[in-house]
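Re: [ENG-882] Designed sequences occasionally contain unexpected residues at chain ends

Forwarding the minimal case from QA. Structure tokens:
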């Protein structure tokens, strides 16, 4: 892999177009400082503009995946305008992950709390080590995790999400999988191999189909069911007109592998 940057977020890209972004504040449990969010935003925008990108893996250095916002930084400037700007910056970053035309996989090697748990929820897919833990624990400090609740409630059943939000209690990796927060749970030694299984399954498919499908997947979730079906029908029709889909269907008819 070729190294692209040495900073708060390390970025690497391999020959397949798999971009790995690594949160790199291990001494601060990868807390999302303003500088960290700005660095991640810049790398996400770079990935969005890369026509050769196929997958983004969001990883982290050290023992923790992400401990949420940097509370020391937040406490240093207690003003409504500052907090509104901070959470707007975070929201923009989270929505950029969802808007990327390629799948984003969270590689969760440690705890993910508050906005760190939100980060896992906003990724399209997540693989966690079996000793990872998750919480939206702001309520323990008197601060309800309102922005994390948006992502959490779109991944986890309502009562389960609300319980996490009002108790601030941790759930383990296996419970996170049962609740729908992560896709797969493996021992630490198998984490990279399990992430690679997802990557291999994605890069084997046409990029355009994945991009159209991801955009539709999130768009239709915010519609009523009739509007969702209408949008999905238009998207499938457009997808069917793409050369990759036409070739894929013809290959199925011909009983051969598609020539993508």
């Amino acid at each position: 892999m070729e190294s692209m940057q040495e900073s708060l977020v390390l970025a690497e890209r391999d020959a397949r177009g798999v971009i790995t972004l690594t949160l790199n504040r291990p001494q601060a449990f990868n807390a999302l400082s303003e500088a960290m969010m700005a660095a991640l935003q810049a790398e996400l925008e770079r990935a969005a503009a890369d026509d050769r990108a196929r997958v983004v893996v969001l990883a982290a250095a050290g023992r923790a995946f992400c401990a949420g916002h940097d509370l020391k930084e937040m406490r240093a400037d207690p003003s409504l305008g500052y907090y509104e700007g901070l959470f707007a910056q975070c929201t923009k970053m989270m929505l950029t992950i969802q808007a990327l035309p390629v799948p984003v996989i969270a590689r969760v090697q440690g705890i993910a709390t508050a906005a760190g748990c939100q980060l896992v929820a906003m990724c399209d897919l997540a693989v966690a080590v079996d000793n990872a833990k998750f919480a939206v624990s702001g309520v323990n400090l008197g601060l309800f995790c309102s922005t994390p609740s948006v992502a959490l409630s779109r991944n986890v059943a309502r009562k389960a999400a609300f319980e996490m939000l009002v108790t601030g209690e941790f759930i383990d990796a296996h419970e996170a999988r049962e609740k729908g927060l992560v896709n797969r749970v493996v021992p630490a030694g198998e984490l990279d191999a399990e992430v690679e299984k997802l990557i291999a399954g994605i890069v084997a498919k046409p990029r355009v189909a994945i991009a159209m499908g991801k955009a539709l997947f999130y768009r239709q979730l915010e519609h009523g069911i009739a509007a969702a079906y209408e949008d999905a029908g238009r998207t499938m029709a457009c997808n069917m007109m793409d050369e990759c889909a036409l070739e894929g269907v013809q290959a199925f008819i011909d009983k051969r592998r598609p020539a993508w």
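QA comment: On inspection the terminal residues look reasonable. The chain is about 50% helix and 15% strand. Proposing we downgrade this to a documentation issue.
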